[in-house]
Design goal:
There is one protein chain. Helix content is about 25%, strand content about 20%. The chain has about 150 residues and is of the alpha/beta class. Helix 2 packs parallel to helix 3. Its EC number is 5.4.2.2. Pfam families: PGM_PMM_III. It comes from Serratia fonticola.
Length: about 150
């Protein structure tokens, strides 16, 4: 007898009928979207935690809108990060982030797609935030008091 195999029955199919862990897809997030009136906020992420989805009573939030607002807020409310701390992002990230960073007077560092391009800036604390993967999440590189996460 073949043992039971784990399934992904909890996942909704994406718009093309394929199971995809895409937290920015309304089709893939249909299960959580169906519950949006039961919570003020609900969060989801993909299996390796590099993309996020945020559901509000109004629906699925655009990840790039969230990122731009988060960058704007954090850099205005973390004076201890210092004026030399930059935002890192990949070349394929939203231009909205570019405009927010410019408005803040911060340095924007664009790198090719891939985590390895962020390592030096994360390790030495020169990035306050970095945009991870192609489009959907940011990770704070610094703690509130400008200490590097290790």
């Amino acid at each position: 007898m073949i043992p039971s195999i784990q399934t992904f029955r909890f996942m909704h199919l994406d718009h093309d009928g394929i199971i995809r862990m895409d937290c920015s897809s309304e089709s893939a997030m249909a299960g959580l979207l169906a519950l949006r009136d039961k919570f003020d906020l609900a969060f989801a992420n993909d299996p390796d935690y590099d993309r996020h989805g945020i559901v509000t009573p109004a629906g699925l939030m655009n990840p790039n809108h969230y990122l731009a607002v988060a960058i704007n807020y954090l850099f205005q409310h973390r004076p201890q990060w210092g004026a030399n701390v930059a935002v890192g992002k990949t070349l394929v990230s939203s231009a909205m982030i570019d405009r927010v960073v410019a408005d803040l007077g911060r340095k924007l560092v664009e790198v090719p797609v891939g985590f390895k391009w962020f390592v030096d800036g994360l390790f030495d604390g020169s990035f306050g935030l970095r945009r991870r993967r192609e489009r959907r999440c940011f990770v704070p590189a610094l703690r509130r008091h400008a200490l590097v996460y290790r």
